[in-house]
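From the shared-data thread, chain only:
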Amino acid sequence: MNKLILFDIDGTLTSAAIGHIEAHAVAYQKVFGLYGSIYMVDYNGVTDKQITKSVLSHLGVDEATIEAKIAEHMRVMEEYYVSLKPYLHPRLLPGVSEVLQKLNEDDNVLLGNVTGNLPGIAYAKLELAGISDYFKVGGFGDESYVRADLVKNAIEKARAMGFEGDDVYVIGDTPSDIIAGIAANVKTIGVATGSYDEQTLKNAGANVTLSDLSDFEALSRALLM
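Structure, as tokens:
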């Protein structure tokens, strides 16, 4: 395998993260005894670990307490989200199904994820959307406060699975996806299927931007950078 393609999930592959926001709120209350919400901070493109720290800091929790309990907080989040699986129906965004099917047919391509989601939540979302089998590796939101670290982690995991090339792409819908890819020294493709338009993604430094993933030929050209 000589090409690694790392997809974000929310806003790139699937629609809005119903259940995920609630998982944060439940964990703040159960673990810290506080009413907290991701809406208290800028959460777009941010890892779950960093969102948690930012919300708790906003609520006046000291750093030592955050660090002591954050692993438990993330565990409660995952457990709560998984408990909602029978009631959640994430929708694939335009072109995603075809893109994954076609890319998966290429033996030289390894597909993975780089997402701010905790791994249990990420896997649940992919499973519910019917696309979990396509992805073999990933960087997830429990691994670091810094999103660029997730890209680097995913690449290291891919190396362990036999990825031998230097052709790595991050595909995402937020400036944070693009900035993380640049920091990890990989190529970046912005898709305007989330909260940001193509110009904003270009301004963040994306090598290529697309309105969505429905034009496979356009994506294929982007993957030849």
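The beta strands are 3-7, 109-114, 137-139, 167-172, 187-191, 208-210.
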